[in-house]
Amino acid sequence: MKQELVVEWRHIGKDVSNTCERCSETGTNVMSVIREISLFLQDEGISVRFVETKLPAAAVSESNAVLFNGMYLEDLIDGMEVSFTECKSCSCITGEDFVECRAVDYKGERYEAIPPELIIRAALRAVGFEDDPETELIIIEKLNK
């Protein structure tokens, strides 16, 4: 049986261009990574499927999340934690004065938009490529071309 990687991006708003700024950047990064990682994983017998989940404004605390086969990105990378920071962009979308949106903290850095490197690392771990910096680097280099 062929293995599958299901990558789900959750966000408020209508689509990548009509969501909060950080969700939009995360979504763009997810789609770029999927294009590159699909080629690599296809050679390994693993198909990749993308799912976009559009959340209502009331679910802003669940927005800006990426899941891999049902597991949150932050659960696939040791030492990563979720935090919430003020997001003026989400305030505009929800109509509320003060809204906090998801971010992740990793190795002393806060990422409001999830960068491609972390998306790649989580995706590879979700399909059993544990701590494979060489493969991560190859995919990152392809993204940067």
From TrEMBL:
InterPro entries: DUF2703 (IPR021219). It holds the Pfam family DUF2703. This is DUF2703 domain-containing protein. It comes from Methanochimaera problematica. The lineage of its organism: Archaea, Methanobacteriati, Methanobacteriota, Stenosarchaea group, Methanomicrobia.
